[in-house]
Amino acid sequence: MWIDPDLADGALEKLPKTRFFGDLGLLLVRDGWEDANVGAMFKCGPYGGYKLNEYRNARDFHYVNVAHDDPDVNSFLLYARGALLAETNRYSKKKLTSSHNTILINGKGQRGEGQGWTQPLGRGDKDMTKLGVITALKDAGDVVVVEGEGGGAYPDLTRYRRMFVWVKGAYILILDDIRAGKQAELTWLIQGPELTPLDRAKDHYVLHKDKALCEFCVVCRPQLTAAVAASTADHRGKPLGWRQLRLKGSGKRFRVVSAYDAWARGGINVNVAGGDQARTLKVTTKGVADTWTWQPAGEAGAASRLVCKRGGRALAEIGQKDPPPKP
């Protein structure tokens, strides 16, 4: 929140650069404490957090105050070189899923959205702990991976699994496995102060604010139609003027892979191969070539399996043996 100017030189570097706040399903990770460093946030949790909901559930779901919470299950932020580049809304007058870096289904957002003050869910959705759950977490130092299940936040989904992968000094990778019980329309969202297409044929874009830039690419199966438009994000009712990429298409199952050149190495690219059971992802930037094997979870509450190799050696692995700490 703030830095004591009297701290001795080097004191900040002794602080942990990765922190997971289990009650909120919130991960914060950074590679340093200077303006020029890179940082990111991932969130997948219920309105109010788990402890407050345990209290509510044990008392026949009576009222609790979650007024300031947003419909932001499986959303993320990205900071690099002095600027927030993948952004969220501010003190919103109308809490909309479309103001966050997550998804819409059939043009609609997450349960409970659309009000000025969020209210506890009722009727069949009373148990808000089912809206978002962290299924896996692993901090391997230079590689940090977290996985969230957000299907419970959408009436028309059976699964919304998102893996957030931090590879220090190289790139950030996001893997989405989205499933619906019947034909549905997906709108995949990312926004920032400025967002510009670089090469529509290759699905490359750049997030930027002033001189800070972050190129990224997106690979979708099935193929989605891209459009860049004004974001719905606001601050006290005033539009923030951000630009938003919207990838839209129809189906019952979607795989979306996005990679972010957060350290500005150059040449970010992803190639995806394989079928529904497992996929091979080749992620490259200047001086880096990684091969990931992604095996989405077979069961609703299980963790997906993800293995990375670089130059023939194992770089990271996450799976069922890496559950998150209990809230």
Please explain how this structure is put together:
The longest helix has 9 residues, at 49-57. The chain has one domain: Beta-galactosidase, Chain A, domain 5, CATH 2.70.98.70. By secondary structure, it is mainly beta. Strands 6, 7, 8, 9, 10, 11, 12, 13, 14 and 17 form a ten-stranded antiparallel sheet that branches. A five-stranded antiparallel sheet has the order 1-2-3-4-5, with no helix packed on it. The protein is built from one helix and 22 strands. The mean pLDDT is 94.
Question: Main traits of this protein?
Answer:
about 325 residues, mainly beta, Beta-galactosidase, Chain A, domain 5, about 5% helix, globular
Radius of gyration: 19 Å
Broad structural category: mainly beta
Give the number of domains: 1
β-strand percent reads over 45%
Rounded average pLDDT: 94
The helix count comes to 1
The count of β-strands is 22
Mind sketching the topology for me?
Layout: E1 18-21, E2 26-30, E3 38-43, H1 49-57, E4 75-80, E5 83-86, E6 103-105, E7 133-139, E8 143-149, E9 159-167, E10 171-192, E11 194-199, E12 204-209, E13 212-221, E14 225-230, E15 234-235, E16 238-239, E17 243-260, E18 269-274, E19 279-285, E20 288-295, E21 305-310, E22 313-318
Antiparallel strand pairs: 1-2, 2-3, 3-4, 4-5, 6-10, 7-8, 8-9, 9-10, 10-17, 11-12, 12-13, 13-17, 14-17, 15-16, 18-19, 19-20, 20-21, 21-22
